[in-house]
Model the fold of this input.
Amino acid sequence: MPISPTSGPLLYVIDVALRLHRMECGQQRMDPVAYRLFARRLRQALAACPMDELPLQDVQPAALREAIEDRHFLEHGHFQGQAGLADVALLTIARCRA
Done:
């Protein structure tokens, strides 16, 4: 039975991310149209999920991890974790000196 958005938002996000991952790793034939479709569906499904429901640490596959990081950056203006906070501090210092 195929997984649809009504199966649960997080389950759907993971399913779409795994489809992208299989294409990226060569486990499934790369179809450019399907890849763009799944990438768009992943972005849309992530937009519908609250950030607190998304796994933020040690996320697999890479397509899901990158999509979560992109969303976090767009919402907060910095990347996740200590490196992201260090970037914010450096940008703040640079702005004060300018």
About this structure: The chain has a mean pLDDT of 76.
